[in-house]
Every structure is written in C-alpha cells, then in structure tokens.
Design a protein that fits this description.
17 helices; binds adenosine monophosphate; alpha+beta; 8-stranded mixed β-sheet; 5-stranded mixed β-sheet
Length: 427
C-alpha cells in the first residue's frame, strides 16, 4: 500500500467520472441561468463566526466543522455549506434585490464516512435574497425538480412542509418540548440531548427507537397562523399548476435553525433511507441580519452531487460520457509528423490524441482502440514520402466479403493536404 492515501471520507475523482461531475454542474448552471440566476463564487474558508450563525443546534456547526486558527491568529473554518457564505456576501456587497444566485463547490463536514456520506462532498444550489413571495418558493422548488428531470432521474419524491411564521414556530416548539419531555423515557439518549437544544430537531431523528414517539408528536399545521397557512396553500397551488407531484410531510423540519414557512426535500427513492436526501432547502429569515445586514427574506436549496450521481447510477441515467477524442494519430516515422497532424487537427476544432515513445505500429493501434476515437490517422514512411495519410475507421465492423484487408476495414489513403477537410466531412 502506498504511504499516502486520501484521508477518510475524501476521494479522488478520476476520469471519466470527473467529466460527469463537470457535466452535472453544466446542466445545473444551464437550468439556473435560464431562470435568471447568476453564479456566485465565494471562498472555501471563512471566519468561523459566519458558519456559527447557522445555529448551534445543528451537528454541522457544533461537531462537524473543520476549523483552525490560521497563521494570522484568525479562527477560520472550511465551509460546511454555502447558504451562510452567500448571505455574508450579500451583506458585504449589497447587490440589488431580489438577488438570484446559484453556486457549486465542495463542502467539508467531519462526519462518519459511508456510502453517500463523505467528509468532502460537492453541492450545487441556489439562493434568492430579498423577496417574499410564495411563488418564488415555487420557482425555487421547480428548478430543483427540473434539474432532476434534466439528468433523467424519475425516482425522486418531493416532500414539502411549512414551519409557519416565527410565532407559530415558537408555539409549536414549546408544545413539542412539553410533549417530548412528557415522553422522555421513550426517546433515545441522542434525542434527549438534542431536545435540550432544539425540540424541532428531534423530529429529524432517524433512530428506530424514536419513531413511535415522533409519529404521535403534535403537528405543525395545527399551529399555522392564517398568513402562514395562506402562504403554504399558495406554494402548493403553484406546484400543482406546474404539475409537480409532492407530498406534505408535517415532520420535515430540516437542519437550519433559520427556516421559516416553506421547507422541502428531494428524496432519491432508490437510495438507502438514511442517505436518501438528494437535496433540500426552504425559506429562511434572520440569517442576513445575524451577519450584520438588513432584515432580508431568503429562500434556496442545496443538492448533493455525490448522492444524486449514486441515484443516477441506480436508475441507469446520466452515465459518464464516452470517449473524449475523435481522431487518434499513429505515426511510425519518429513522431514529428504526429506533432504536426495533431496540431492541425486540434486547431481545426477536432478532438485528437496520439501515441508517444515511437512505439510499434501494433502498440500504437492498440492505444488508438483504447482511446475510443472513431478514426485513426496513420503515417508510415511510405505515406510520408508520398504526401499521404491513411484514414482507418475504428468503429466500423470488419467486412469479410471485401476484396482485401484494407477494404474490409474501410481504410482509405488521403492526400495529406486534404486530411482536415476529409475528416470534417466524415466525422
Ligand atoms: P444539507 O446542506 O445538509 O441540507 O444537505 C443538502 C444535500 O447535500 C443533502 O441532501 C445531500 O445530498 C448532500 N450532503 C450533505 N451532507 C453530505 C455528506 N456528508 N456527504 C455527501 N453528501 C452530503
């Protein structure tokens, strides 16, 4: 085993999988930008305080942060998510509202690594700051839905809920607190600890021991004010108008302490239930203020790239892209002709690769096959002298009825000067 390996929960993403990652972000960017969202690129590292504003009842903040004191004595952390950074950027730059942004990048959480759960993982997401409209919630949810459709995923379930207005939520939390305290003995030790910080988060518990107590807990809908109920009804009407199927899940509270009104989650139905959240988000208030900005409404989501790709594998969609090159140059005259030909091909916009180290014809042809290219351009001494090249299709079936081996392969000799035109027509 080599001396150095990636740290637990961290991975190298190698080709061709890395090309799939890039395409994933590309598809997301396309969905977001067609809806008027611009990309925000923020640093991977911020003052620890930025992330502490997310709330102290979330494991992400209290247990999982990669934080350290830098050489200048600043207490900083690698970002565990991007909503806080986007809000910090909003406060710092004060862009016009509504500020509609999308993002992508790696997040860091010191979690127990397992399939679909890593210590460095990637997300794509959107946030809208400075607008309070249930149809904006609908737009945000619909963009997530549209993105999954663009990837080809079918087995995705949308769960929605409303946490009500801050007052509703406070009354609900008090009722939940009283309820869980009355049922303390039945709760897991972990949930009893969570209860001391935030009763809502107990609803997030996926521990079997807590299931019955949680199932019989008070429901948030009983506490919705008229305004909150109207907002939630409008969100549902908007989703229905777009034919987006959803399930109301009264227990969906999600991690962030700042969520208010709408919360939602996309579940991958092919994944194990402990790791089946492909992504989620909601409407939040107070985060911008707590970072020193004006009172500002926010709504957004983050979707996990890693888990979504696992779901794609399960459904057999959005496969890693096939071969990257179109043409492979084989040169048995020393390699300089291949320097010229690949240079010309690339300048003409064709994807081209070649063999190195002046290997044998056989070895170079093997490399050509492995490259996935659809044609090989072959130059030997005879061709070099005659000012020609041989173009050999690599993907056409061998024709046993042909007069000779060359014909059977569909191989052609082309004047060197006609090569680019010939390939542009042929490919
Ligand atoms: P959150 O920011 O916790 O709401 O997570 C949003 C999405 O990011 C989740 O639904 C997952 O798809 C993904 N995610 C969160 N934590 C991890 C992790 N440790 N490893 C992989 N994906 C993650």
């Amino acid at each position: 085993m080599p001396e150095f390996q990636t740290s637990p929960g961290m991975r190298d993403i190698l080709p061709p999988e890395s090309a799939r990652w890039r395409r994933f972000v590309h598809v997301f960017a396309d969905v977001a930008e067609r809806a008027g969202y611009g990309q925000v690129i923020s640093p991977m590292l911020e003052d620890l305080g930025v992330f502490q504003r997310i709330g102290d009842a979330t494991d992400v903040v209290t247990k999982e942060m990669y934080d350290f004191v830098d050489k200048g004595g600043r207490h900083v952390a690698l970002r565990p998510e991007l909503t806080a950074s986007v809000c910090r950027a909003f406060v710092q730059h004060r862009p016009a509202t509504p500020w509609k942004v999308w993002y992508t990048g790696s997040q860091f959480r010191y979690e127990k690594p397992q399939r679909g759960r890593y210590r460095q993982f990637d997300q794509v997401g959107i946030e809208v700051l400075g607008a309070d409209d249930p149809y904006l919630d609908v737009e945000v949810i619909a963009l997530g839905w549209e993105f999954y459709r663009a990837l080809g995923l079918q087995q995705v379930r949308l769960l929605v809920n409303s946490l009500g207005e801050p007052d509703d939520r406070a009354r609900y939390v008090a009722a939940l607190q009283a309820y869980f305290e009355a049922n303390l003995d039945a709760l897991s030790a972990e949930s009893r600890t969570t209860l001391q910080k935030n009763a809502l988060r107990v609803l997030d518990s996926k521990r079997p021991q807590d299931a019955d107590v949680i199932a019989a807990a008070p429901m948030i809908a009983e506490f919705h004010s008229d305004e909150a109920a109207a907002h939630f009804a409008a969100v549902q009407a908007g989703l229905t108008a777009l034919d987006i199927p959803f399930t109301v899940d009264a227990k969906l509270v999600r991690g962030l302490d700042y969520y208010r009104r709408t919360t939602f989650e996309f579940q991958g139905l092919t994944l194990d239930s402990a790791q089946n959240a492909l992504g989620g988000g909601g409407r939040y208030d107070g985060l911008v203020e707590s970072l020193g900005g004006p009172a500002t409404h926010g709504v957004g989501f983050a979707l996990g790239l890693d888990r979504t790709l696992l779901a794609c594998d399960d459904e057999g969609v959005f496969a890693p892209p096939a071969a990257a090159v179109q043409v492979f140059v084989v040169d048995t005259t020393g390699g300089l002709e291949a320097v010229r030909i690949t240079g010309e091909l690339r300048a003409a916009g064709l994807a081209a690769d070649r063999a190195f180290e002046n290997r044998s014809m056989k070895s170079q042809m093997k490399a050509a096959d492995r490259s996935g290219a659809s044609v090989a351009v072959i130059v030997g001494t005879d061709e070099l002298e005659a000012g020609t090249v041989v173009v050999r299709p690599l993907r056409t079936a061998f024709d046993p009825s042909a007069a000779d081996d060359k014909q059977a392969r569909g191989q052609q000799a082309i004047a060197r000067n006609d090569l680019i035109d010939h390939l542009k027509k042929a490919l």
